[in-house]
Sequence to fold (768 residues):
Amino acid sequence: MRAPGVTLRLDLARLGADPALAPFLVRPDLRLPRRAAASGLAPLDAILGGGFPRGRISELVGSRTSGRTRLLLESLAQATTRGALTALVDVADSLDPMSAAAVGVDLPRLLWVRCGGRLRIAWPAADVLARGGGFDVIAVDLGDGPVWPLVRVPPTTLVRLQRAVEGTPTVLLLAGPRGVAGSFAALTVALGRGVPRWAASGPASLLLGLETEARLVRVRDRTPGATAQLVWGIDGTTPA
Amino acid sequence: MSLLRRYACAWVPRFAAAALVRRDPDLRGRPVAVLQGAAATRRVGEVSAEAGGRGVRPGMSATEARTWVPDLVTRDQDPDAERAATAALLDAAWALSPRVEATGPDRVCLDLAGLPALRHSAGARAAETRLAECGMAMLAALGLPARVAIAGTRTAARLLAQALVDIPADVTVVPPGTESHHLAGLPIALLTPIPEVALTLERWGIVRLGELAALPRAALLARLGVSGLRLQAEARGIDVHPFVAAVPPEIWVEALALDWEVTSVEGLAFVLHRLCERLAARLEVRGRGATALTLTCRLAGGGAHVHRRGGLAPLAEPRTLGRLLLGGLEGLTLPAPIVGLALEAETAALAALQADLFAPPRPSPRQLGEILGRLAALVGPEQVGAPTLEDTHRPDAIGTAPFEAAVAGSRGSGRAGMPLPPEPCGSSRTSAIPPPGHVTGATLVRRRLVPPLAAEVEIQAGRPVTVTASGVRGRVLAAAGPWRTAGEWWADTGWAREEWDVALPDGAVYRLAQDLTTRRWTLDAVYD
Fold:
């Protein structure tokens, strides 16, 4: 019998770690460690804590030539290589299938939804995909258009998306020139302006590669601010 | 050794009323009368069992019938509903036997010869009883209360089934060779003789089939002619016509004539769901799924609106079918209210798929079909699919393939826990651990600008020095090129281009291209 005035405190983390008790705990957070989907880039995965969290919204924010599309395609390639299905809701129809195939995306496993520049139908399309289930990664490429429509995305839309993927093994990636999900995103990666590397100046110049910096600007279970340097070059060359 | 012939007959009593109840399930259990004839002289044609039991008879006027039964529900005869009910009846028959004869809109005859369960004499009767009960249950699931009988001839099976008119949920199985004995006690009215013959037989005191069967053949021929002999043969359970097998239809149609006008999506959803339920039940019975749906809305004052939804994985779930159709009708404005619907399906076999235990979870074909259908309703069918590359270097050689076909074609090629396929050339997913803070990658990724941005380019010494396009303007900070490509000069799709990689003041690197035939410059893509 407890002494009066003594508060019984449960160490939930300890209970969750006990394999004998885990099946009886109600909170899924305590039962299962949250899984992550590798982005395919080791330095980025290092600062993400293994990759993009499943069952959550993640954001990739960057301007043109920031490497945003490369990161998006790397994530899709990583999933399709495992045999999983992926989907890309493409607001501006800007996917270059040749680039995607070159990065390693298995094109038959990528469902490409072209919105023809209509941002307003991208959200219900993503909702259909998220609620339908069965896709490992759902990416929404918000395009490079004007920023003001992205500012006006209704919070209810984001709540619906968040609820749709919650508790599922799906990674929902939003990629655009600015963040739209705010606190609904579990993770936001901002990409700095990419620095192109040229072989030489003058008539014989050649675009060799691209260097950019990825910064973790929002994350729930760690301190944001970590950065990773990402460099891509053309076959057989090393960017200067 | 001769093959023992066995036939089953399924008959739907009060067919017109049953078809109406199938069309509108809310009428089940209520007294229903089907009205026939012109508006001024409409008479009761057929009645449901509930109405018949309370005194409503065919030939009464609608007013008289309502006097007998105040809560009587009267409906006009619906030929569309009857055709759909006949199709459902045949579907159930084909689910049990490949040889089926449509002997009338309300009955169907099945050849049971060769069915595995009936090959052995021991327990054959029990197997036949189970088969008959299975058929009745199947028809009940399709909304058709039927009577089923099994005998050695089609005529005997038909007469025995019709004798069960007032005995619901019962079957009759007659052992081989005893057909005439079982038919002897049935009323002569089951043969539906022409009125003159019926009157003559009544005057003779012939009221049972056994009495007609016992009459001397020559005397009967002398008095009633060939029709009398035919009646006698039927009374003995002898088939007078050869078996004519029906051919399964390739078109699946369910139709509905509405008694009221539909003006809202909610109302349409209500009736559409019923249509889908009926169609899905028929598809399920035949083990098929809809791969394309065509909904024809008949409008008041003539005209019709046709809505088609194609490219589906085989589906037989009514809710999914309904949602797919409604998804394409949202926001639609029709010039007049809807007074009738017809739903037609193109079908394919429902394949039972075993999920791959080693592959990541993926949507089932039905889930995928629904997802693709809803996406197609949102963005357009041609905007959804798997990206494909054509076998050409033409810059716009991009297309899409049906996603489900692509998935089926690639199924099982990647498995968790199995050796991974070769990495793409120079990809960052190499086994070597990259140096901290860096990745080594090979391919530079481009984003297409759709449509390409028309640009004005100033050239000096053969190189671009300034670029002006919508939203992009300034001096070229760095440039690489030109890369010249050309091809397909023998066809209308030929091209000849000169391409540059240019860095502009907005910090981005673009793919700048000049069409060498038109000399026009465009910004085609941006490196990202």
